[in-house]
């Protein structure tokens, strides 16, 4: 057993000063069979610690329906075997460019602005979740022979709120549930963020990507004593659909890392290895200086321009960081592991069966219900997926503009069975007026819930009503389709026909590989949707770019025949779906 503590100037293990050289690696963004390799890569880069969040919504998709929380413990055990300490960040909120910042839709939907406050109902949800989660962390603390050395209270709370009572309640709950290692907070190095997000008597750390000396000077104004740490050194960045691929010059990032260490500080690389937001769990941001502007959905890849790329390979940034970190190592760094195997040669998938979207909804969707006004995704218990809204425009009446007020995020509209256009939050009015009597269907898709800023937790769907001219249309029928409804057993029961020149729906097929290995899956010319390989959801694809292929982990593939499903929500492509051995930076268009 060992003791980890926060000293006046340093972190200490059994009284010996230590510098934490940590890297972020999210267990939920890496296939479990690849954890060991990625953790060895962290050690080879010169790190002695790994940091991870825990996404509440992944593990509790419905109230009390807990899924594989034991994965947290298995990852902590893998880190210990790799010789790494662990910084645990259990939330309840985590940001991380993840759907809803990790908060379940069934919490944020009913509570609205009461989330992340002292509100008794929200704190009650947090306590019930933490009583399930925290035993997996508590029993693996360093003073019990495990790798966990610190636990975070909330996350960047000063960027969101100022409820000191809430923060103290979360900290007290963690202690009540058995946390004995030091607690900490992390916030941007700005006065309002540090005053809003830090807790007296608990270590405060800062998050930034450059100008370390200025950032630490601000932190010192708030905390004159205690070890300095950059809890998130943003050595790369993430991408949004429809925007340019973001990269950071490796030499610039290495200089910024060196500056942090020259300040005598500890550091956590965010991200050391980003991985992938499998399963459609990528979040979204709001643009503008106040993060309340247009929606900016995050791409599926979380490569993050990190030193270890999405395929687990070392980049130029990795080698430069290894050189910087090696100067602070007590012994020679381990050899860099061999890169994972890749698929040998391109493979084309044959899509031989098709079920129209209407048939998919009929077989896999929830029950249809009628409402006075359009219900939100949250009211229909849809986390990731889509909702079909149907309404009748009464008649006879002249054509008037049709508006989906408060639309979040995208709707494909059909009038009397014919495609009439696509609506968005910025363009919520149908191009051609609609006359009555007419049946209107709107297939609304969530492009990812906001994960950062004041609009975190906002509902999805048609949130302001359907209007014909200025008149609300009532009697709206709605039916939801969740992504987790696409299980092998459920999909096997779908009735199917030949794809032909079919439109939106589920395309099914197969491909064969002689040997397994990592691959990139490409859908040239296809519109927007989701892909599953052998029942494993790779995530969203979208012709909007910049991401041009989806990462396929080698462990997902099987020698011989493999099954593939493509849920196309817009228009199918003229080209076949194919797998190639490339990837990483190549998965994004420059």
Automatic annotation (TrEMBL):
It is an enzyme of class 3 (hydrolase). Gene3D superfamilies: Galactose-binding domain-like, Glycosidases. Residues 374-475 form the Beta-galactosidase 1-like first all-beta domain. Signal peptide: none annotated. Its EC number is 3.2.1.23. Residues 11-325 form the Glycoside hydrolase 35 catalytic domain. Pfam families: BetaGal_ABD_1, BetaGal_gal-bd, Glyco_hydro_35. Residues 504-562 form the Beta-galactosidase galactose-binding domain. Keywords: Glycosidase, Hydrolase. It comes from the Bacteria. Coiled coil: none annotated. It catalyses: Hydrolysis of terminal non-reducing beta-D-galactose residues in beta-D-galactosides. Belongs to the glycosyl hydrolase 35 family. This is Beta-galactosidase. It comes from Streptomyces kunmingensis. The lineage of its organism: Bacteria, Bacillati, Actinomycetota, Actinomycetes, Kitasatosporales.
